[in-house]
Amino acid sequence: MIRTLVKRLPRLAVGACATALLAGAAAAAEPENDYPTEARADYIFGCMAANGQSRESLSRCSCSLDALASLLPYDKYVQASTVLSLRQGIGQRTTAFKSTKVFDDQVAELRRAQAEAEIRCYRGGT
User: Fold this and answer.
1) What's the CA gap between 82 and 47, in Å, rounded?
2) Is there a contact between 77 and 123 (Cβ–Cβ < 8 Å)?
3) Dihedral Cα 98, 99, 103, 108, nearest 10 deg
4) CB of 74 within 8 A of CB of 36?
């Protein structure tokens, strides 16, 4: 029994390595920080509304979103966007969102990613 296992061990190890390599390649093929389609469409529609309804605008807005997604994970994007939305309100409920360092840091991270995306796609050309 032990001799059989010892003889089969190199084949088992090769099979396990091949399986691990294939799994790693499949994981690498999936884009990181992928935003859901609805969020991508919403971002691009808003961007185009602010920058013109042209083919060039579509290209630059798509580039901007891709750059943003490469810099900021989707969950952080949602958190910062939510804080920005809540800061638009008035009254005591919005005061916490306007004057809390944690929320300021989230928004600052989003703003940095947006600035980098703008540099890549609007100032550097597409």
Assistant:
1) 17
2) no
3) 80
4) yes
